[in-house]
Amino acid sequence: MKLIIREDANSASEYVAQYIIHRINDFEPTPERPFVLGLPTGSSPELIYRHLVEAYKNDDVSFANVVTFNMDEYVDLPEEHPESYHSFMYKHFFSHVDIKPANVHLLNGNAEDLVAECAEYERKIKEAGGIELFLGGTGPDGHIAFNEPGSSLRSRTRVATLAEDTIRANSRFFDNDISQVPKQALSVGVGTVMDAREVILIITGAHKAIALQKVVEGSVSHIWTASCLQMHENAMIACDDAATDEMQVKTVKYFRSIEKIEQEQLARTQLNSEDPRLQQWRGALKKLEIDTSQKAAAPANGEITPDSMTSRLHDSAIAIDDMDKMEDGLKLTNMGSRVNSMAM
């Protein structure tokens, strides 16, 4: 698991947005092969969506061939309600980019059969080829999506009952009236998130410092469900300095040093790839062929005489075109003739 630490929430969010843009562009999605992106809601990803929208307006990325699956939705809250996650996504992201409505998937918290709705959601994810990258956030209690403390780490999309801490935290979106906050939601499961080929969490603010410490330094636990990322082979957490307040200093230094080394290695690789002289040299080496099958005939006087290098060069990148001229100018005597002349 990687931990990317930035000075503030905006810098951390910008890093994540640029990473997503890079992944989409490198993937080169098409209608037949779209990039499948999992998305969260809540306050954590708002800045990320802002940076993504800005990048789209600058023609740095297109979402025309991106398919999305959102993490969750409240139960019994009308889609048109200003605090529904349908409204949130269109307000902060979908209505500002070129994503196709048919490519947008959100859970229906008003479905007649909620269990069937969840099963169908899992089927659609599988039909889409699985999620390439799942972006998520976490609450102060370390939950991922609406997988509250105590959720199974193998859970799938299902009806989830919200914890009191979550209800209280979300009341800020409902005029601080806890009675107005829905008590249940449809949510992808921990197992659903873990099935994604890559997972990124954004965790910012001192109020989430304990959660980050538990997720990174603690044991994998169903009490801190986001800790499941320790078991994912391709997971990353982006955070700000404030969120690291509860972590050990040596842990923070370790992750900072890892990122620094990776950046240095990347810069060195890019520098080497841009040097035409290095590429020319490597190309010459690949063309070099030395014929080691030739055996020099033993001399009449029985001496061992080394063969000339020119006899072993065969159609190589450093072969000399006119060996005859070279041999005319370099006449080599054998060791025996020089010893005899010295003895005389």
UniProtKB/TrEMBL annotation:
Residues 8-231 form the Glucosamine/galactosamine-6-phosphate isomerase domain. The lineage of its organism: Eukaryota, Fungi, Dikarya, Ascomycota, Pezizomycotina. The keyword Hydrolase applies. It comes from Knufia fluminis. Belongs to the glucosamine/galactosamine-6-phosphate isomerase family. This is Glucosamine-6-phosphate deaminase. It is an enzyme of class 3 (hydrolase). One of its GO terms (molecular function) is isomerase activity. HAMAP family: GlcN6P_deamin. One of its GO terms (biological process) is carbohydrate metabolic process. GO terms for cellular component: cytosol. Its EC number is 3.5.99.6. InterPro entries: Glc/Gal-6P_isomerase, Glucosamine6P_isomerase, NagB/RpiA_transferase-like. Gene3D superfamilies: 3.40.50.1360. Catalyzes the reversible conversion of alpha-D-glucosamine 6-phosphate (GlcN-6P) into beta-D-fructose 6-phosphate (Fru-6P) and ammonium ion, a regulatory reaction step in de novo uridine diphosphate-N-acetyl-alpha-D-glucosamine (UDP-GlcNAc) biosynthesis via hexosamine pathway. It catalyses: alpha-D-glucosamine 6-phosphate + H2O = beta-D-fructose 6-phosphate + NH4(+). It holds the Pfam family Glucosamine_iso. PANTHER family: GLUCOSAMINE-6-PHOSPHATE ISOMERASE.
